[in-house]
Structures are given as C-alpha cells and as structure tokens.
Amino acid sequence: MMTIDKFNFAGKKAIVRVDFNVPLDENGKITDDTRIRGALPTLKKILADGGALIIMSHMGKPKGKVNAKYSLSQVVDAVSEKLGVKVQFAPDCAKASDAAAALKPGEVLLLENLRFYGEEEGKPVGIDKEDPAYDAAKKEMKAKQKDFAKTLASYADCYVNDAFGTAHRKHASTAVIADYFDADNKMLGYLMEKEVNAIDNVLKNAKHPFTAIIGGSKVSSKLAVIKNLLDKVDNLIIGGGMGFTFIKAQGGKIGDSLHEDDLMPEALNVIAAAKEKGVNLSLSVATVAGDKFANDANRQTVDIYNIPDGWEGMDASDESLANWKEIIMQSKTILWNGPVGVFEFENFAHGTGEIAKYVAEATQKNGAYSLVGGGDSVAAVNKFGLADKVSYVSTGGGAMLEAIEGKTLPGVAAIKGE
Ligand code: AMP
Q1: Per DSSP, what are the bridge partners of residue 213?
Q2: Residues with CB under 6 A from ligand 1
Q3: Which pTM was predicted?
Q4: N or C: which end of the chain has fewer CB within 10 A?
C-alpha cells in the first residue's frame, strides 16, 4: 500500500478529502477549528513536496441541494491563514476542471460542499424512503455517483483520504473515487493513518489486561460494539445510562432510570456470553440518583438494585468508581467510549471526571495504551483537560464505533484494497 510519507508530490496535483465540517456561529464564523487543524500535516506535506492541492469536503447536511448556510466559502480565509497560501475557491465542485487544470505547484483550490450534490452520498434527492419509486431512484443515483466520483478524480494525479469522520461512509469522495486511481496513486493522509493505527493497536495488537469502558445513554447504540469486544477484552466496564438495562434485566429495581426494555434479553445474553468467555463484566454497584433530570436535582447514593421510585441513576457512585479504578489501573490497554453519568450537569459529572483521571493515570504511570473515542467521551477528556494525557483521542465518533464493531471502514478499504 502507498503511504503519504513514501509519496513524492512534486509536480503532482493531489485531490484530498478532508473533514472541514466545522461548527459555525450564526454569522458564519468558525467556533471550533480542530478539524481544519487536524488536516494540516497532510496538506502541508503535499505543498512542501511541490504539489498542488485540490481540497474537498462536506459541510452539514444540505441533502443534495445548494444551500448558502453550508457553503465552504466560509472556511476559505481560515484555511488560507493556516496554510499560509491564498486558497482559491471553486463554487461548483463538479465543474472545477478548468480551475484544477490551471493550478501550479504550491497552489490550493478548495471545492464547494460536495453534499450540494446528492451524488456524493448516493442518495436520491427529494424522494421519500417509503415512496415506491425510491428503490429505482436509488439505483439511478448510485450510477450517477460513479460519474460524479470520476469527475472529481479527473482533477488530479493522486488521491489522499484524510477524513476519518466519514470513513464509515461509502460516498463518492470517501470511497468510490479511489477506484479511479491505481494503488500507487492513492493513500491515507496522516490523520487517517493515526486513527487507523490507534484502532489497530487496541483491536489487533492489544496488550493484556485489556479493559473496555463503555458508557453513554443507550445499549441499542453500542450493542454491536459490546458484542465484538467480548472476544477481545479481559474486563468490560459498563456504566452510565446503559447500565440500568442490565440491572433491570437481572430483576433490579431501577426507579425512573434510563433503560430500554426491549434490550433486556440482549443484556442477559451479554452477561451470559461474558461468563462463558471469561470476561470480567463490571457493572455499577451503587449510583448517585437524582429526583429529577436536572443539575439542581436532590441527590442520594443508592444501591443499584434498589433505586426508589421517583429517583433516577445519574452518576457513578464512589463504590463503583473504586472497583473500576482498580481494574483500570491494572490494565495495559484501555478503550473508553461513553460517559458514566450525565456529565453535562456539573453535579453529576464527578464519575466521568474520575474515569478520565484513572485512564490518564494508567497511561502516564503504568504505560497503558489508551484510546478514547466517541463524541461525548472526547468532550469529557477535553472538559477535564486530560486529552493530552491519554494515548489517543479519536476524532471520528461514528467511524470509530463502526471500526470497534469489527466492520471494515469503506474509506480505508477503498485505499487498502481490502
Ligand atoms: P452516548 O451518545 O450514547 O455516548 O451517550 C452520551 C449521553 O449519555 C450523554 O449525553 C450523557 O448525559 C448520557 N448519560 C450518561 N449516563 C446517563 C444516565 N445515568 N442517565 C441518563 N443519561 C446518561
């Protein structure tokens, strides 16, 4: 497989898929430029080699229609400033051949939002899924998606994918386009390489004991992840809102705590599978419950199997945290996804903050490899200022979850040829 370090971009035009889907305020000002900064090492390497850059991205969900609110013209100045090169803008991503052809080494062209075309996602525009004509429209759109990808590919000599956040999508710019470049002319960018290596480190090369900490609100959204991890981990800590489905399924009284009745059989399956596979499944033993879902709720610590009516479990108790700390501190590989309480409320954020500290301490003091990922746990390590104390913080929520589920990411497979 070609890698970005091996490739010499001198005299070449590179089309690079990045994730510039940055949050904007009501005046179109960027409020968090993390994603732009994340792509810089790749973009700078190409320019430093003497290549020309064609940058493409999506922004928001314009659903196949032009919508000024989602125009990438809003990021041109920020990208110019960060690259130190005046970025040119192509207002129609599918009609940029001339602008691309005119690019000289060291020049940069940013294409308008790819999702202004339904072809990018390959989804029919303006037709409901329930509509009997939907399937035919989808088939037609899939064919058009290939043409769209081919047009994008025609702008450049080589293709780089550095958009991990969309690596789990088989879109024109993330996967289909790779078919139009031979193996020596397509590669992952630095950010993608780091993400893929971090996930391989835990899923393929984990040192044991390997502990996964899975929290968050719903079992349904992480069941596939949990099942895949049962074959890999030594310890599985389940905390946060999703834990109550496991407690109720075992006959516990959970008061008004979050739970999913329809997933109780699955929760019991997980408990049985963990036993069979020798995985130490650690659930909460007690919880800090609140009498309403609000920061100023009254609080009391209660036995996890006996939560009074009118109260709901909202944070991990000291006793649960002590158990989890012991497990985490003995671990050599740690994967953390999802908060163990309603950490957005200051009064119920203690448990999640503690977990962040334990993971950081195991990494710093014991040399454990720790991977933190999934929107909210990333927000949590940032909130507690510990992002640089863990081994890797993944930028892609959905992509990371799908990778941990054991799925091959189309964006990666398209380049690796898997
Ligand atoms: P997820 O997106 O599935 O990772 O879930 C993250 C959300 O789970 C956060 O917004 C947390 O507030 C929420 N959460 C965690 N623990 C609880 C709990 N005990 N009760 C309700 N929500 C929770």
Answers
A1: 237, 336
A2: 215-218, 221, 240-241, 258, 313-314, 338-339, 341-344, 374, 376
A3: 0.87
A4: C
